[in-house]
Amino acid sequence: MFHLKTNLIYTKITSTSFPSAAELIELDGRLIGDWLASLPYFFNEGAIQAPKFALCHSILRWRYRNLRILMYRPFLVGKWMLNSDQGPDGLREKDDTHVELAIQRCFDAARESVELISSFWAQHQKTTMACWYGVYFLFQAILIPVICLRNNPSDPAAHGWREQIFQAVNTLESMVPLNANAERFLRVIQSLCGCYLYPRSNGWEGPIQESPETQIANLYPLMWPTLEMAQLDGVDSAL
Length: 239
Known about the structure:
This protein has helices spanning about 1-15, 20-40, 50-80, 95-125, 130-150, 160-175, 180-195, 210-225, 225-230. By secondary structure, it is mainly alpha-helical. InterPro entries: Fungal_SecMet_Regulators. One of its GO terms (biological process) is positive regulation of transcription from RNA polymerase II promoter by galactose. Keywords: Nucleus, Transcription, Transcription regulation.
């Protein structure tokens, strides 16, 4: 049902011309908002679930936040990696208010995903299926603070980014026995931002010296589902 309701968003964000922040915010309210409103009361965001329904309910919460990350991530990358107020296609956004809201929604979705997945993993039965979904959505979420931290490690928000990364790392470490990808993703996180997690004797490490083009080329394969993941998740692999 979620994919049917939000298919237009997937189509828009995978098209050659990326939509504006204003258009995505409108689609968010109309499609994701309507989908959330259509959920039965016992599956609402904060509804308490019996153990047998806890994973299904949690996956719904993780999934729509993951879509928001995919929707708004290009605007965040434009600001933190490219140091630009331009949109994903290099066109200057006319309404900075929409761009800032898009960036904030990306931050919020990533932070909430890390918190929700880590909390679920700590409190519920650790099954292979829960681990598979948790690993995938958690890694997609933690890339957001990782990207920001390595490009501006002295930003006032950097402490919060580090806390999110530490929380995600702790959760991924406990997932390793059930999913080999967890160990792989831990290595990726360490290689991307390990030197920015702890201060040196003379202060924090400076921003990454890689060009934006090099960073994007290296990060892009990590930002989208692999063919195997897409097929397992029931998503068209072309997405």
